[in-house]
Specification:
The protein is mainly alpha-helical. It has one domain. Helix content is 84%, strand content 0%. The chain has three helices and no strands. α1 packs antiparallel against α2, α1 packs across α3 and α2 crosses α3. The termini are far apart.
Length: 80
């Protein structure tokens, strides 16, 4: 569950930075960071606080880094 919340948080961060405007951007970004904080709070089920924290943080950064590339690939596939 923590991993799904972290991936959702990274997706919301990507959407808020790239696609949203105005108050919707702030709302998505705030919700994404809150979801990441909740995942970090429950992350100790992954082997303790620090192992869970580093696992979720690295997953968050990996998902945030991959999401623009994934959007590009999916949009390019629709154009073909």
């Amino acid at each position: 569950m923590c991993i799904i919340m972290t991936i959702t948080s990274a997706s919301l961060t990507h959407l808020s930075v790239r696609l949203a405007v105005g108050w919707y951007r702030k709302l998505l970004f705030t919700f994404g960071i809150a979801l990441l904080a909740i995942a970090m709070f429950f992350g100790d089920v992954l082997g303790g606080f620090w192992p869970g924290f580093y696992t979720l943080l690295s997953l968050y950064f990996l998902t945030t880094a991959i999401s623009p590339w994934l959007v590009y690939v999916l949009m390019r596939r629709d154009d073909s």
